Amino acid sequence: MTKLFTSGFSHLILFIGIFIMIVPVWMIFASSTHTSSVINMGGLQMFLGESFYDNYLRVLLYKGGFFKEITALKMFFNSFIMATGVAILSVVTSLMAAYALVYYRIKYASFLFWIIFITILVPLELRIFPTYSVMAELNLVNSYFGLIVPISASAIATLFFRQFYKTVPDELLESAKLDGANTWRFFIDFLIPLSKTMIVAMLIFMFVFGYNQYLWPLLVTTSEQYWTVVMGLKMMSGSIVHRFAFVIMSMIPPILIIVVLQKHFIKGVFQDK
What we know:
Layout lengths: L1 H30 L4 H7 L9 H10 L1 E2 L5 E2 H32 L5 H12 L7 H10 L6 H5 L6 H13 L2 H9 L4 H12 L1 H16 L3 H6 L8 H7 L4 H33 L1
Antiparallel strand pairs: 1-2
Helix pairs in contact: 1-14, 3-14, 4-8, 4-11, 5-8, 11-14
C-alpha cells in the first residue's frame, strides 16, 4: 500500500510539473497563430488561430536589425553553426586533455588539472575584455571562429572525462599494448567507444550552452550578419504575435538536437550494459 501511494504521488508530482512547463509554451504557440488584434483584445489564446502560415513566414523572411540586413533564418543558421562548433570543439579538446592528464606521465598532473579547472571556471564576464582584445588582435571579430573558439574550453567536460578514464582498468591498457596498439590507437579504438555515452551527453550539454550564449556574441559581432537567435530575441521589433512566433521557432533547434541525440544516448546505455 505504501509503495502504491508513493508511486501515485510521484506520478502526480510529475504530471503537475509537466503541466506547469507545457501550458505556458502551448499558450505562446497558440497565440502566435492569431493576429495582433485578437491578442490585444482577448489576451493569450488557448486554441490555434488561422494566421500560422502568415506569421511564421513573415518572421522567417522579414529583414530586421538596425540596418535591415538580417533575417530570422540567418540568425538560426548562425546560432546552429556556433552551437555545433562549440559542442564539437569542446568535446574533442576535453577528450584529449583528460586523456593526457590520466595516461601520460606528467609531473604534477593533478595539480595542473585543478589549476586549469579553476581558471576555466572563471566566469566569462570577468575575462571578457582580455579575450575580446585577443580576438580583435587576431582579426577574428565578426567571424564564426571568433564566436566559437573562446567559449569552447569546458572544465566540466574535462572533469567528467578525466574521472571516467580513471575508472578504466589498467589491464585494458596493458592488453592493448600486447595487441600492438600504440597510445593513439588505444585512445581511438578503446577509450572513445567506451566514452560514447558520455560524449553524446556532453555534446547535448555544450550545444545548448553555445546556443544560449548572448553576451559573447553581442561583444564579438558588430555586423548584423553574425547575429544569433538570442540576440534577435533581445533586439527584435514588431508585433507581439511575431515575437511569440520567433520564441517558438528559437526552441526548435535545441529540442531537435536533444531528441535525436537522446536516442543514441539511450542506445549507448543499453549497449554498455
